Amino acid sequence: MADADDVRRLALALPHVVEIDSDGFDFRVADKGFVWSYPERRPGKPRVLRTDIAVLYVGDEAEKQALLLGEPEKFFTTRGYDGLPLVMLWLARVDVDRLDELVTDAWRMRAPETLAVGIDGGARSVDA
Q1: What is the CATH number of the domain that holds 68?
Q2: DSSP result, 64-102
Q3: 8 Å CB contact between 89 and 74
Q4: In a domain, 123, yes or no
Q5: Distance from first CA to last CA of the chain, Å, rounded?
Q6: Matching InterPro entries, A to Z (predicted)?
Q7: Is 12 within a domain?
Q8: How far apart are CA 49 and CA 17, in angstroms?
Q9: What's the burial of 78, exposed, middle or buried (CB within 10 Å: 0-12/13-18/19+)?
Q10: Residues 6 or more apart in contact with residue 124 via CB below 8 angstroms
């Protein structure tokens, strides 16, 4: 099972990542978000940052649908994210190795090509 501390450790292990001050977690590369806490919105109530759920950049609608349909017990979306290349992930439902792959892929899609060249298909070593 993964958690917010794992997200933080994995994201910060990637080059040129900046953590934005937040009540949860929020990571960017080249001023582009790639993983952050899910800002849950409920009618008539203040927004709540859910650190048990990560929002991940996935690149395109095809990848989003593949994750949602292929692993519905782990990934979900809401109407607020319709048309956006983003999915939500229940952190407790993935292991750290899978989370590492997802965070690295999200970073790779948002990082400038000159930065992403150094990351070899998620093969970097991060202590779990």
Answers
A1: 3.90.1150.30
A2: HHHHHHH-TTTEE--GGGTTSSEEEEEGGGS-HHHHHHH
A3: yes
A4: no
A5: 11
A6: YjbR/MT2646/Rv2570-like
A7: yes
A8: 21
A9: exposed
A10: 13, 104
Give pLDDT tens digits along the chain (128 positions): 999 999 999 999 999 999 999 999 999 999 999 999 999 998 899 999 999 999 999 989 999 999 999 999 999 999 989 999 999 999 999 999 999 999 999 999 999 888 766 665 443 333 33
Backbone phi and psi for residue 84, each to the nearest 5 degrees, phi listed first: -110, 145
Is the whole model's pTM more than 0.70, yes or no?
A: yes
In a domain, 40, yes or no: yes
Residue type, 68: L
Q: Which helix (H) or strand (E) holds 26?
A: strand 26-29
Domain that includes residue 32, residue range: 4-113
